[in-house]
Amino acid sequence: MRGKFSQQERGGGRSIATSFDDGKELLFDGGPILIIHEVMSNGPLSTKLFESALKYIPGGVNSPVRAFRNVGGQPFFARRAKGARVWDVDGRDLIDYVGTWGPAILGHAPVAVIEAIHSAAKEGVSFGIPNPYEVEMARTICEWVPSIQKVRMVNSGTEATMSAIRLARGFTRRDLIVKFEGCYHGHVDSLLVAAGSGALTHGRPDSAGIPAAFAEKTVVVPLNDVPALEALFAQRGQEIAAIIVEPYPANAGLILPQPGFLQSLRDITAKHGALLIFDEVMTGFRLAKGGVQELEGITPDLTCLGKVIGGGLPVGAFGGRADVMDFLAPNGPVYQAGTLSGNPVALAAGLAQLRELERQSGYTHLESLGQMMEEAVLEMLKKKGLGWRWYRRGSMFCLFFTETEVKNLTDAKTADLAAFAKYFHHCLDNGVYFAPSQFETGFISMAHSPDDLARTAEVAAAAINAAVG
Ligand SMILES: *Cc1c(COP(=O)(O)O)cnc(C)c1O
Fold this sequence. Notes:
binds pyridoxal-5'-phosphate
């Protein structure tokens, strides 16, 4: 290659930083991929990579919440992830509760999923022709999620919600969509109104670039506010195509439905001839085989899936009543398509993950890990005399830094964000990675051990001292 160079050994002894005398640096040796950048500063590799990233990628990231804007500081770069752990390019290892934002329910890089990817890929990575994995995935979804009679595969959660609302509009021949404040349904134009997740973290619940005429077709109601919903339907019921809801809203922290709320959505949509869409992109296959709809005994008309269903590869799905799904092309008038939809490698990964979860009685085990964490958190809050609000369902959790009971987005926003930022950084500096925002849900995986949870409890207790002390 070039002339003189010096090497830094980090993380596992493999050379990942090589400096050349012309000021360029080899930042990463990923087998056949070498990354050579001009480096502007000294410091940890993550800092150097982020500098380069800022030059070529808007904000340095490919999804906004990764930029750490809500907690300050800079993101770290991942080199490797296995089980409950992530290693950064500087050799630091972290107990991870982000789990690639939901998909990694077995932990990172589970053997069953990796093997399925290998064996599928050997036969071809994409066909654009029907393949057997599609049939098996569709059959599995219909078997596990009882409200789904027919299903179509897509490549992300956003595609699933986008397609589901188009279908609902086409089927009902109505335009209005009702969503709830703080619910995030991906970056679909008409759903990026008062949304959660990155949109919330950045204090811009609405995005530029969405025509006002689109946003007008979306009506936003506060979560858990049945009277507001009834008033809306009384006035505009004939125009409403669908209600879309995260049945356990998990993108503004974790906000649980009040008793009867989900049933009232089912009742009011049925009464007015609108469809009920459950966005279970986060909760589907995370909490039970049949998602929240199984746990709560509610039957939506359409369901959106993503995250866990792809085993870490880009997969989404939407499905539901056969008469509604048959409105899709080629059977019906609603167009929807995808070059890579039903991709064999991605579906092999997803199927392997679902089967492994079933084989290991995943939901029972995750509930017991969740309980273990919950006991530690509640004891810690009690010891410190803090009335902060803790919410959990199975392996999903959120500690709100507020004493206000959180029933909607307004309540969630009472959280002490400065204290959260201190807490987050203290945890990160001590080997525990929670999501870099108060308005996200944490995830426990099958790979988290009781020792991991005990270590996390120790770190979190010290972090709370640092945050409020
Ligand atoms: C993550 C998420 C989406 C968007 O999925 P992407 O794969 O990021 O497009 C939609 N709805 C919910 C509830 C989600 O959590």
